[in-house]
């Protein structure tokens, strides 16, 4: 299922649609397929479309100061910002550090007594340590006490992250004192484009969620120029990221509806 969820949307992204149309043009020998393929690829590759697509996905999320955030029972930082560099040492490097530092800032601002990193992993990298294991070490270097920072077991998607955190916090006495049943309040840290889907997953696992979005991909102010209509690989990547997130939201909505039924 992990591989299926990662690969299934590929055929519905601009590159996948373009390839399908090109193959259809070759099979049916119709010029219209080639023309539409070029139109799809061009539209998906211009910065204006990529930026507007990301803006739509990020919605009305805003970046706030950690001091202004409400307090909660725990700070939960979702995985998604590291890669394993080539080499026998398998050193993990940053791709984006905003989630990590967002969690650190909230903890240092005294917003919760516990900092949780999810153990993001990839099934095609079985020997690599989970992201959570690595970030716990970094957090301790930044002064977070060992007893105040934990990680889940390995998880492979957002739904597994929410379920793993629910199991982890159920065993924390200072989060659920004396075994009393109560809704746990968490400050959820993830990328702005990912927040809506992640928040829904954690709420479905019984959490009261305070969203703390970071890693914004669209600037607050930008004028349209001729460069916004010139195709680029980066713009295509932005467009496909937004579309994938949109598909992910639909998938999880269907998944939740199936569970309720």
Please provide a brief summary of the model.
By secondary structure, the protein is an alpha/beta fold. The protein contains nine helices and seven strands; from the N terminus they run H-H-H-H-E-E-E-H-E-H-E-H-E-H-E-H.
Protein topology:
Blueprint lengths: L1 H6 L6 H15 L2 H15 L1 H12 L15 E4 L4 E3 L7 E3 L3 H11 L6 E6 L10 H11 L7 E7 L2 H13 L13 E8 L3 H10 L2 E8 L18 H28 L1
Parallel strand pairs: 1-4, 1-6, 4-5, 6-7
Antiparallel strand pairs: 2-3
Write out key terms for the chains shown:
two-stranded antiparallel ribbon, Rossmann fold, 261 residues, single chain, 15% strand, alpha/beta, globular
Description:
This protein has 261 residues and is an alpha/beta fold. It has two domains: 2-60 and 220-260, no CATH class; 66-214, HUPs (Rossmann fold). It has nine helices and seven strands. The strands form two sheets. It has a five-stranded parallel sheet with strand order 5-4-1-6-7, with helices on both faces. It has a two-stranded antiparallel ribbon with strand order 2-3. Helix 7 (158-170) packs across helix 8. It is globular, with a radius of gyration of 21 Å. The two termini are 21 Å apart.
Given helix and strand content, the structural type is alpha/beta
**What is the strand tally?**
7
This entry's quaternary arrangement is single chain
N-to-C series of helices and strands: HHHHEEEHEHEHEHEH
Q: Would you tell me which CATH topology of the largest domain applies? A: Rossmann fold
Question: What's the name of the CATH homologous superfamily of the largest domain?
Answer: HUPs
Across the major sheet, the strand order is 5-4-1-6-7
What share of residues are in beta strands?
5-15%
Q: How many discrete structural domains?
A: 2
Give the overall form.
globular
């Amino acid at each position: 299922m992990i591989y299926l969820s990662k690969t299934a949307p590929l055929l519905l992204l601009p590159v996948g649609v373009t390839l399908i149309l090109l193959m259809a043009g070759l099979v049916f020998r119709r010029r219209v397929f080639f023309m539409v393929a070029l139109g799809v690829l061009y539209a998906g590759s211009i910065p204006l479309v990529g930026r507007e697509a990301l803006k739509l996905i990020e919605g009305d999320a805003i970046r706030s100061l950690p001091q202004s955030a409400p307090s909660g029972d725990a700070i939960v930082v979702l995985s998604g910002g590291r890669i394993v560099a080539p080499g026998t040492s398998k050193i993990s490097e940053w791709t984006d550090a905003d989630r990590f530092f967002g969690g650190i800032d909230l903890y240092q601002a005294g917003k919760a007594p516990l900092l949780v990193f999810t153990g993001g992993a990839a099934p095609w990298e079985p020997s690599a340590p989970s992201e959570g294991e690595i970030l716990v070490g970094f957090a301790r270097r930044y002064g977070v006490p060992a007893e105040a920072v934990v990680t889940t077991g390995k998880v492979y998607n957002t739904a597994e992250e929410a379920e793993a955190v629910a199991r982890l916090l159920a065993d924390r006495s200072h989060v659920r004192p004396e075994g009393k049943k109560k809704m746990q309040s968490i400050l959820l840290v993830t990328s702005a484009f990912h927040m809506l889907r992640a928040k829904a997953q954690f709420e479905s696992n019984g959490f009261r969620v305070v969203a703390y979005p970071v890693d914004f991909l669209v600037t607050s102010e930008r004028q349209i120029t001729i460069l916004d209509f010139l195709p680029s690989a980066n713009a295509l990547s932005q467009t496909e990221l937004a579309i994938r997130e949109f598909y992910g939201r639909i998938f999880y909505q269907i998944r939740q509806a199936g569970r309720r039924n």
